[in-house]
Amino acid sequence: MGAQVTGTSAVLDVKDLAIDLRIDGRRLTPVDGVSFAVGRGETLGIVGESGSGKSLTLRGVLGILPEGAARRGEVRLGGESGDPSPRVALVFQEPMLALNPTMRVGELIAEGIRAHGGTPRSGIRAKVLQLMADVGIPEPARRARMWPHELSGGLRQRIMIAAALGTEPDVLLCDEPTTALDVTIQAQILALLKRLGQERGMGLVFVSHDLAVVGTISDRIAVMYAGRLVEEGTAEQVLRRPQHPYTAALLGCTPSTVRGDADLETIPGTPPDPGRFPEGCRFAPRCPFEIDACHGADYRLAAGREGRTACIRTDLTLETRR
Fold first, then answer.
1. Can you tell me whether residue 66 is helix, strand or coil?
2. Fewest Cβ atoms closer than 10 Å to its Cβ: which of 6, 174, 202, 320?
3. Greatest CA separation found in the chain?
């Protein structure tokens, strides 16, 4: 599914999501007016630097926010408004911090199955073992009796995925689930998530700071900077024909997206403080193509040559050196 998903065909539709925090007496809005949608069997990747608001966006979708935080905007699941948590599951970055160390992994998976309901007690163990097999865990009956610390990082992440699937979600949110894994295991987990999403008809939202990883798994990519989306399109379009200077800059400093004869680049400056976002385009202070009009721009996604972009410099042709 390469085309932009519409609200009527989306399994998850997020409109103008904003998250307000109050820290040290300051009111911050680190996620500000984020809108996206994902269809069944489709993977949407959200990519950006640390602190861009990616992970907070996922927690905003679920309503899992810090004390005192407030969520604005609309989250619709399958065309319905309300609390999406019963039909949305989240896979965390570090399974050792998310898995209860006092429970055997089979029981951890069984908890999700019980919470979802619909499976008789006599059938729970069989479903646990089937889920473990589905996510590629060898000898599931033996490993179901193990504790989290007895498993490798890759197997722990598979347990996390199996536990999430036990709730039979319509949407699986993945918060940098491969960051702590080596390259080989990372590739296996990405392929597993992609296959499960397609086989089960789940929508996947995959968050990462690594454009190369996002490009591996995603049908569409949304690029996030300073709490807002700056570009959205098919994976091929975003990776090969970016329309926003920030996207092109990210590609320039991602090793696996740069040709061997080209030097890696860096993005000058630092992302803005969430309490002091600049007027207009928030990337303008770091952008080599900045013009005066950028400081008064609306800085919202609009139709571009392909996909959508928040950049007003429609005259630019940005190369990726792929």
1. coil
2. 6
3. 68
Alpha carbons 207 and 242: distance in angstroms, whole number: 19
pTM for this model (two decimals): 0.90
Determine what percent of the chain falls in helix, strand and coil, rounding each to the nearest 5. Answer: 35, 20, 45
CB 313 within 8 A of CB 284: no
What is the number of other CB atoms lying within 10 angstroms of the CB of residue 59? 18
Residue 276 vs residues 28, 66, 80, 227: alpha-carbon distances, Å: 9, 21, 35, 12
Q: Which pLDDT band holds residue 20 (cuts at 50, 70, 90)?
A: very high
The DSSP H or E segment spanning 303 is: strand 302-303
Let me know the angle formed at the C-alpha of 20 by 16 and 22, rounded to the nearest 5 degrees: 170
Give the distance, in angstroms, between the CA of residue 155 and the centroid of all CA atoms in the same chain: 21
Q: CA-CA distance, 126 to 134, in Å (whole number)?
A: 12
pLDDT in tens, 192-230: 999 999 999 999 999 999 888 999 999 999 999 999 999
- In the numeric block, the tokens 């390469």 are attached to 2
CA distance 164 to 166: 5
Give SS3 for 248: helix
Do the Cβ atoms of 231 and 310 come closer than 8 Å?
A: yes
Task: Please name the residue ranges forming H helices in 177-297.
Answer: 183-200, 211-217, 235-240, 245-252
d(CA 181, CA 5): 31
Strand residue runs (E) in 40-126? 43-47, 70-77, 80-81, 88-91
pLDDT greater than 60 at residue 296 = yes
CA nearest to 108, candidates 85, 134, 131:
131
